[in-house]
């Protein structure tokens, strides 16, 4: 969230800076004379929203907030938020004279229940589009400027629960460059229940309440003196949280399944007036993509999925959790530790020998294991100026390690922090935990809405609703044991994602729609899958199984690199994705191997920038 604000404000500040710096002709069109026309709602670029625009787009400002669901005339309320003064708009970073792109904000109203025409309720989806050609000035001769691109790259960052509008703010300019040489507009939306879309699901009235709660709930199995009683506590807490969701949102949980999200994406395609869909879908977004492609095979244009899920697993009880467990410990061993030693002590603090012994991957792994397990009997203590006293627990440290496996760009930092902790200095780890773990920051003003955190659980549990469920907790206790034994890094975190499903069924009727068909429909155009060898959340095995089922309706890049999705950049992967998105051409072979350009601990600045941009999707669910 902090990251989003930084970039958002960056845009505003850049716009002010440009105003001061630009020469005369540009100043003319944003001169104070033009700026005073607030009442007429005229701008040098005309009026917004444009006539007949299904998304009601207006240039984004820092005050673009969607009209409430109970607003009797939302279009009018929205139109009145239009600020005709272009200095308040969010322009792209590029030179203001050379085809400035612009961020447009809008919304799409869709049925809450697609399966019941007599249910009048709607969801209002927040949409942010980066239009690469910028805007055309009123009265200027028609050019490409101000027009939508031939295809629009629809993006989705995953989750479930990730915000597509935030993703657009962070990444649209990079993505259009990387994936289309700047040819395509980029559109992100907040899925139903998420962030700025309405309703937005937060079952806690304030983020601080959720923080408190998570302190109790996030306890790892290894630290519990009695796993059974710890499980009973976690289960009761889940019941309380889901019950709060039902109190606050009624039957909404019946309408958030991935099948409905796929229908929303089809409505977005129609609103764009494009014959078929062009998209870049990441992580859980690939689950939306697989479902979409098989529900709407005739609408499949050029769809790239990156960080592969296999949605058949999500139909099974706990599947969303256990399907993720294959490779995070490989990433730790071969990547975090192995590449550390390859890079050497100048790049990685842990490569420094602490005794006369030569450091090997195995000896380093032993040292780390004993450091981490030492926290089982007693947490380490720390201090931060912001929070005061702090504890470094076994559970919180492993949470941090798991998060870091998502993005190899963070590894030097993690190595330094573990090395310091080993030497008895907890300053860095306390600071990292403080910034990663808590949402509420008492020094910041209270945000207008709490985060839509609980939406993710509702989607995961809706998608596995019809799986047979054991009555008692024993099966779940077994699953917890199995998952944490298989994977000490991801096992607990992934188990906590699925345990709430035990309670979901007691609180809601069946979801209005679940897609249960095959995944091998014949598509209008084949899709491109990108699946990573060391992905800590979406293992290569998932991509392979989907590819086997889809056959010639898909091709796959096996991306040899670290981290979640293809953020460990590879020119080979990018070239294949771009050729496909721009020209519709795919490799002949089912699988193509691509290798990351660089190695962890040795990234150059250019790719570090890309990495930090994508660090946004670093949440535990993604
Ligand atoms: C929006 O940005 C303007 C500066 O462009 C600032 O004066 C105003 O306070 C901001 N409004 C909000 C709600 O942040
Ligand atoms: C359809 O919606 C109507 C109006 O809200 C409601 O009364 C009815 O129960 C719904 N039917 C189903 C099958 O959900
Ligand atoms: C990504 O965007 C940032 C900020 O606009 C820019 O500095 C960087 O060069 C971009 N990277 C790519 C690969 O386009
Ligand atoms: C990922 O996990 C699978 C299944 O456990 C294993 O066969 C494969 O070797 C692992 N990949 C890597 C790169 O270690
Ligand atoms: C602990 O680490 C911090 C951060 O690197 C450093 O500023 C501090 O001096 C260290 N403390 C001691 C006692 O070495
Ligand atoms: C746990 O693992 C055991 C041994 O592989 C297996 O028999 C059992 O079905 C698993 N239980 C669950 C709930 O996954
Ligand atoms: C899809 O796979 C199923 C088996 O799972 C098979 O019966 C069906 O014929 C396949 N459909 C197509 C279009 O290949
Ligand atoms: C990847 O492409 C960039 C931009 O074209 C180039 O500068 C870089 O050298 C390439 N890297 C590799 C490893 O091919
Ligand atoms: C309305 C709302 O909740 N908006 C949030 C969407 O997500 C971004 C990034 O997390 C927040 O900054 C917004 O406040």
Automatic annotation (TrEMBL):
<dbReference type="GO" id="GO:0016787">
    <property type="term" value="F:hydrolase activity"/>
</dbReference>
<dbReference type="InterPro" id="IPR013595">
    <property type="entry name" value="Pept_S33_TAP-like_C"/>
</dbReference>
<dbReference type="InterPro" id="IPR000073">
    <property type="entry name" value="AB_hydrolase_1"/>
</dbReference>
<dbReference type="Pfam" id="PF00561">
    <property type="entry name" value="Abhydrolase_1"/>
</dbReference>
<dbReference type="Pfam" id="PF08386">
    <property type="entry name" value="Abhydrolase_4"/>
</dbReference>
<protein>
    <submittedName>
        <fullName>Alpha/beta-hydrolase</fullName>
    </submittedName>
</protein>
<keyword id="KW-0378">Hydrolase</keyword>
<feature type="signal peptide">
    <location>
        <begin position="1"/>
        <end position="23"/>
    </location>
</feature>
<dbReference type="InterPro" id="IPR051601">
    <property type="entry name" value="Serine_prot/Carboxylest_S33"/>
</dbReference>
<feature type="domain" description="AB hydrolase-1">
    <location>
        <begin position="152"/>
        <end position="308"/>
    </location>
</feature>
<dbReference type="InterPro" id="IPR029058">
    <property type="entry name" value="AB_hydrolase_fold"/>
</dbReference>
<keyword id="KW-0732">Signal</keyword>
<feature type="domain" description="Peptidase S33 tripeptidyl aminopeptidase-like C-terminal">
    <location>
        <begin position="518"/>
        <end position="593"/>
    </location>
</feature>
<comment type="similarity">
    <text>Belongs to the peptidase S33 family.</text>
</comment>
């Amino acid at each position: 969230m902090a990251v989003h604000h930084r970039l958002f404000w960056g845009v505003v500040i850049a716009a002010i800076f440009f105003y001061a710096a630009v020469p005369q002709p540009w100043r003319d069109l944003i001169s104070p004379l033009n700026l005073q026309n607030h009442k007429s709602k005229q701008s040098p670029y005309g009026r917004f929203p444009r006539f007949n625009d299904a998304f009601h787009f207006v240039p984004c400002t820092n005050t673009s907030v969607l009209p409430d669901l109970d607003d009797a005339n939302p279009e009018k309320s929205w139109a009145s938020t239009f600020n005709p003064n272009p200095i308040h708009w969010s322009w792209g970073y590029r030179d203001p004279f050379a085809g400035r792109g612009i961020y447009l904000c809008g919304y799409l109203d869709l049925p809450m229940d697609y399966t019941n025409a007599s249910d009048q309720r709607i969801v209002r989806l927040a949409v942010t589009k980066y239009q690469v050609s910028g805007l055309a000035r009123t009265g200027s001769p028609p050019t490409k400027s101000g027009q939508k691109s031939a295809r629009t790259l629809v993006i989705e960052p995953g989750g479930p629960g990730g915000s597509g509008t935030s993703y657009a703010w962070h990444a649209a300019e990079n993505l259009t460059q990387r994936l289309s040489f700047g040819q395509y507009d980029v559109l992100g939306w907040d899925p139903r229940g998420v962030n700025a879309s309405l309703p937005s699901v937060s079952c806690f009235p304030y983020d601080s309440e959720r923080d408190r709660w998570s302190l109790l709930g996030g306890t790892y199995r290894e630290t519990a003196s009695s796993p059974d009683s710890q499980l009973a506590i976690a289960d009761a807490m889940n019941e309380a949280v889901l019950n709060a969701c039902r109190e606050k949102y009624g039957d909404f949980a019946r309408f958030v399944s991935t099948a409905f999200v796929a229908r929303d994406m089809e409505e977005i395609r129609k609103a764009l007036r494009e014959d078929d869909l062009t998209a870049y879908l990441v992580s859980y977004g690939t689950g939306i993509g697989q479902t979409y492609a098989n529900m709407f095979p005739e609408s499949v244009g050029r769809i790239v999925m990156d960080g592969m899920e296999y949605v058949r697993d999500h139909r099974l009880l706990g599947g969303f959790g256990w399907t993720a467990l294959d490779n995070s410990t490989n990433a730790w061993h071969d990547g975090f530790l192995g590449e550390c030693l390859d890079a050497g002590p100048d790049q990685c603090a842990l490569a420094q020998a602490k005794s006369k012994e030569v450091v090997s991957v195995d000896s380093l792994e032993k040292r780390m294991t004993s450091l981490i397990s030492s926290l089982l009997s007693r947490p380490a203590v720390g201090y931060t100026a912001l929070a005061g006293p702090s504890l470094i627990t076994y559970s919180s440290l492993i949470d941090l390690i798991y998060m870091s496996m998502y993005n190899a760009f963070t590894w030097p930092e993690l190595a330094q922090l573990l090395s310091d902790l080993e030497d008895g200095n907890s300053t860095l780890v306390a600071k990292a935990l403080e910034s990663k773990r808590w949402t509420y920051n008492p020094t910041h003003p209270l945000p207008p809405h709490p985060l839509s955190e609980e939406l993710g659980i509702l989607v995961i549990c809706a998608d596995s609703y019809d799986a047979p469920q054991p009555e008692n907790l024993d099966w779940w206790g077994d699953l917890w044991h199995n998952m944490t034994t298989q994977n000490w890094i991801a096992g607990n975190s992934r188990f906590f994602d699925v345990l709430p499903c035990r309670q979901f069924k007691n609180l809601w009727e069946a979801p209005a729609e679940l897609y249960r068909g095959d995944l091998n429909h014949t598509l209008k155009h084949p899709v491109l899958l990108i699946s990573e060898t060391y992905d800590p959340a979406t293992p290569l095995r998932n991509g392979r199984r989907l590819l086997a089922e889809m056959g010639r309706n898909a091709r796959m890049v096996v991306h040899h690199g670290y981290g979640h999705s293809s953020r460990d950049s590879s020119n080979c992967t990018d070239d294949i994705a771009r050729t496909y998105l721009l020209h519709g051409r795919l490799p002949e072979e089912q699988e193509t191997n691509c290798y990351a350009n660089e190695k962890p601990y040795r990234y150059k600045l250019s790719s570090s920038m890309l990495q930090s941009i994508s660090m946004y999707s670093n949440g535990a669910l993604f």
